[in-house]
Amino acid sequence: MFDQSPNVAIYPSGDVIYKQRMGMEKPPRFYRARLTQAQRDDLKHRLRSLDSLKPSYFVANGVCVPDETIQWRDEQGTLRQVEVSGVIEPKLAAIDRTRTPPAFLAIYDQLVEFQSANAVPYEPERTRVIFAPVRGPMADPIAWPQSWATPVSSGEDEYLHADLSGLRFDEIYNWIQTRHDRRQDVTSGGKGYYNFIQALYPGDPSPLPTPEPVVPEE
């Protein structure tokens, strides 16, 4: 899976940005919503249980598996993240779930199919694309669009990254998917790379109106 952007991004303000997958062939859709105070308090309590977890877990038997990520900012504003590689969707009775930390599943199951009456479509402001070096002959190479952004070193194992802004997420997604479908390596600086979307950097979204409390009918 080349789209490794977070499934859910949570902010101290109570704003939540989440994505809904539209199948393997289409870009996901993103939404933004505001949690109620009760939901925020409950989620804040649950997030504390992630403090003891490692940043990443690989729970699958196979290699080509989705990465499920919960990303949030703590009360100090620090960006935190836990990623699980495996098939752990609640609707699937996958063995991968039995290997996943229960603290992660408790939040993931609550939010992965998050629905909210006040949700609105959201377009990510920035998207980070990772360039993993090709270890061998390049296959049908195609040049990276330098007009999008110039890749820079990630400081490890010849990896590069490019932070893209001013482009729609589906445009980036479709371009990378086409490279994968056609088995084309991407070139930059005379070297070949394999691209994937590592994370979204939306910044703190503009405030949403606080949901009105639900008053039971008499």
Question: What features would you describe in this structure?
Answer:
The protein is globular, with a radius of gyration of 19 Å. It is 16% helix and 30% strand. It is built from three helices and 13 strands, in the order E-E-E-H-E-E-E-H-E-E-E-E-E-H-E-E. By secondary structure, the chain is of the alpha+beta class. The C terminus is likely disordered.
Summarize this entry quickly.
This protein has 218 residues and is an alpha+beta fold.
From the spread of the alpha carbons, the general shape counts as globular
Terminal CA distance reads 51 Å
- SSE string: EEEHEEEHEEEEEHEE
Largest sheet: 7 strands, mixed
How many separate domains? 2
* Structural class by secondary-structure content: alpha+beta
Which strand-content bin applies to the residues?
25-35%
Tell me the total number of β-strands.
Answer: 13
Mean pLDDT: 82
Helicity, as a percent range: 10-25%
Low-confidence stretches: 207-218
- Radius of gyration equals 19 Å
Task: Please report the number of helical segments.
Answer: 3
Strand order of the largest sheet: 4-6-5-1-2-3-7
Show the helix and strand layout.
Blueprint: E1 8-10, E2 15-20, E3 29-34, H1 37-48, E4 56-58, E5 67-73, E6 79-85, H2 102-111, E7 120-121, E8 126-133, E9 142-143, E10 152-153, E11 160-165, H3 169-181, E12 186-188, E13 191-200
Parallel strand pairs: 1-5, 4-6, 9-12
Antiparallel strand pairs: 1-2, 2-3, 3-7, 5-6, 8-11, 8-13, 10-11, 12-13
